[in-house]
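tmp note - Cytochrome P450 CYP6FU1
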Amino acid sequence: MRSAKAEPRSHKRHLRQFRRTELRWILFSDETCAGGDEGQKCGGFYFLTRPVLVVRDPALVVSILVSDFAHFSSRGFHTNEQHDPLAKNLIHLDGQPWKLVRPKMTASFAINKLRTMIPDMDRFADKTLEQMSKHSTVNAEDFSDKFMIDVVCSCLFGIDSEAIENPDSAFYEVAKKIFDGYHFSVHVFVGYLFPALHTFARMTVARPEITDFFKKVTKDNLNLRESEGLSQRKDFFQTLVSMKETQQNCNDESGGAKVCDEDFIVANLFMFFSAGFDSSGKIGAFIIYELAANKEIQKILRTEVLRVLDKYDNKLSFEAIQEMVYLEKVVAEANRKYPILLVIFRKCEKAYRLPDGGLIEPGINVMIPSSAIHYDPKFYPDPEKFDPERFSEENKSRRHQGAYLPFGIGPRICPAWQFAIVELKVFIARIVSKYELDLHPSTNSPLRLHPRNFLLSPEKDILVNLTKV
Ligand code: HEM
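out:
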């Protein structure tokens, strides 16, 4: 990598920092991500032995993620397809296979499909409230995760995961194990830094028992659909099945390999489940925390939600949700303050000329530090403050598109971003319509974040006291 201004940080210094600082801040902090002096559009650092270009200028972010996407269409994660049934998931696919399958998979999240999912989401919100009514103090992440698990399983796969109601739900059990420990982070970072070692060590996306669980769920669901003639269902699972059956758009012509085989279904069931419950579950918990910590915001939100519910006979339709504009701002601000993925990964595929004349060569990894951008006071004054008004129409129109990246932007944006926003709105609207939320004394305020998790998480449980309104 050559860039006129950006000097990569020294390898030794980085290793020294690595030993003594929290992983989150090593990789994604202002210092690393700023990549040098104030005012630089991008910089670089050595991620152990690998030079990484770090881009923090919103205009350059938009060039890389949107207008010049053809140079950066890959994420650069590594998998071992031959012996990992979870390898062919959308997050890990790159190049031609990704281009082939992405359009079909995203069609399941179109607005007309989302509309039809709202009654189902609301049914799970009711169940959540029923369980909450048994407690005066709740663990926000627990309830949020369980709601998201049931919603994802039901809306996308037609499966009843019973996470909310059944304390022994197998889906909840497996969900807790997926990101427990460091298996996933180690797989991502070893694959990213040392692909040959990753292959040699036959590293996999998940531990064997988790892979087996999703293989069994896929088989059972396929058998059920066949025996009960459910092939007319129009959910995400059926899209995966029809991609396998028709093989349309699924053959990677460059390598001649079949992309959409049975492993493809297992891999995407696994990845849409994991990405689906975990990120939304965490944001749901962060919103509950912020509402409990900011009572005035909670009051404004409750007034809006009750007014709209009253207008729509207490039914949460798509239109009702659209009318909750303050709720929209609260969800947007939570996604600003808690950018779950912290950083967007890309790999340069075709040589790229930076605006300052520097050349990015193919193979160079690029990181876009959403977290550092979301905390840059130039774009978000007083960034630690939770302020939904940052997302008023006026404030949004003043901000650069590249300064708000919770879901990414461009052709590789989170395919389920609207689904995630709708499920969060249903979850939060129903909770604030029934309960006043207060922080339990044992919950840290300001909230401390987990230093080493791959996804942004609270360090300790977010406990909240409930009072019926
Ligand atoms: C608040 C919730 C969520 C957040 C903050 C979030 C965030 C993100 C981000 C930042 C990316 C990477 C974008 C990029 O590289 O440019 C991503 C990709 C992805 N997300 Fe989400 N996501 C959320 C919910 C979901 C849900 C509910 C699902 C599935 C049901 C999902 C499935 C995926 C998949 C499959 C990808 C990979 C897309 C690709 O590579 O083409 N996400 N998400």
